[in-house]
Design goal:
This protein has 168 residues and is an all-alpha fold. Helix content is 55%, strand content 0%.
Length: 168
Amino acid sequence: MATTVLRLPEPEAVLRTAPHNIEAEQALLGAILVNNEAYDRVSDFLTPDHFSEELHRRVYDVMMQLIKAGKIATPVTLKTFLGDHDLGGITLPQYLARLAAEATTVINAHDYGRTIYDLAVRRHLINIGEDIVNTAYDAPVDAAPRTQIEEAERRLYEIAEQGKYDGG
């Protein structure tokens, strides 16, 4: 007698977007463009890699270099180093000017920086989790699970030690 296997329908794949907050990135960049002292509120923990948007990474990196060199970072000075790209109907200088014009207060810069940082950490955790799952599924015969655990621990420790904004 044949056994019938009851199969439940597979759940539909849900595509999720990695956590990010473009508005927080824009607000922070705008605040720095308006008042370069806003950079001092985030410079000890925030790096360009924490931004989810490639353009924002580049803008923050150039601002960081200018400010560290004792120069002013404004839409005008940034244009020199970023070029003039079309961003879907708006030029890069226009985008930078809009960021500066729509900037909120410098007082919120630290909070925006923390938000950007926290979301970057979450994206890193997602990447580590995905790597753990993928490696566990397709591990070579000679790969010990302990090695994978140690690698995951090492990567988690690196995240925990980078850019601490709370002083702990």
